[in-house]
Automatic annotation (TrEMBL):
This is Enolase-phosphatase E1. Keywords: Amino-acid biosynthesis, Hydrolase, Magnesium, Metal-binding, Methionine biosynthesis. HAMAP family: Salvage_MtnC (MF_01681). The lineage of its organism: Bacteria, Pseudomonadati, Pseudomonadota, Gammaproteobacteria, Pseudomonadales. The keyword Transport does not apply. It catalyses: 5-methylsulfanyl-2,3-dioxopentyl phosphate + H2O = 1,2-dihydroxy-5-(methylsulfanyl)pent-1-en-3-one + phosphate. Monomer. One of its GO terms (molecular function) is acireductone synthase activity. Its cofactor is Mg(2+). It is an enzyme of class 3 (hydrolase). It comes from Metapseudomonas resinovorans (Pseudomonas resinovorans).
């Protein structure tokens, strides 16, 4: 069956790992403490603080202790849903103030635009929150790319290394897995998507092979007719 939709990862796939690690994460680490302490009583933030307490097992953690936990999670690149939600809120301030501009590889911008024009539906699945996904593409160096996308998925659907998450995404998109092509730089994510019946292509931007998956270094060489 032909591919009808493309589901793409962000970090290491459409966008440089260095942008996430050297720009986004340090920005969040710098601004998150004041953001959390200032907005702790607002419901959207309070809800995430409670989720940090639940996930860390520290039910009575003060807001200051919650900030310490969050900074530890940033340092270890933990894909914790409440951290990702709070990072998205902090990054929004940076993007709106013009301090951040989303990095998207030019080959990814070109291919995504072409695929959309050819009639493919495009979706995003990242550990970054849906808010953060809309920001990186909406405030990108190439302009607002959000009109290209038909939907966004994050860890509220499930972890990226579990097949069940991809089954749920296929059901939400309304297509059988075999008509969805998943792009990622992480072999465990590709394995999980394959197990759920999706087609896969690995992105190895520095070269190399993602074992068990067709691997390319750029979106420019992906030929959807051959998938
Ligand atoms: C949405 S940009 C921020 C990316 C992020 O926080 C992250 O953890 C990257 O995860 P990905 O699943 O895109 O590799
Ligand atoms: Mg990735």
């Amino acid at each position: 069956m032909p591919i009808k939709a493309i589901l793409t990862d962000i970090e290491g796939t459409t966008s440089a790992v260095s942008f996430v690690f050297d720009v986004l994460f340090p920005f969040a680490a710098r601004h998150l403490p004041e953001f959390v302490l200032t907005h702790a009583d607002e419901s959207a933030v309070a809800q995430q603080i409670d989720a940090v307490r639940a996930e860390s097992g520290e039910a009575g953690a003060s807001p200051e202790r919650v900030v310490e936990i969050l900074l530890g999670w940033i340092a270890e690149d933990r894909k914790a849903t409440p951290l990702k939600a709070l990072q998205g809120m902090v990054w929004e301030q940076g993007y709106r103030a013009g301090q951040l501009k989303g990095h998207v590889y030019p080959d990814a911008v070109e291919a995504l635009r072409r695929w959309k024009q050819e009639g493919y539906d495009l979706y995003v699945y990242s550990s970054g929150s849906i808010q953060a996904q809309k920001l990186i593409f909406g405030c990108s160096e190439a302009g607002d790319l959000t009109p290209l996308f038909s939907g966004y998925f994050d860890t509220t659907t499930g972890p990226k290394r579990e097949a069940a998450s991809y089954r749920q995404i296929a059901a939400a998109i309304g297509l059988p897995g075999e008509q969805i092509l998943f792009l990622s730089d992480v072999v465990q994510e590709l394995d999980a998507a394959l197990e759920a019946g999706m087609q896969t292509i690995g992105l190895a931007r520095e070269g190399g092979v993602l074992e068990g998956h067709e691997t390319v270094a750029s979106f420019a060489v992906i030929d959807l007719a051959r998938v």
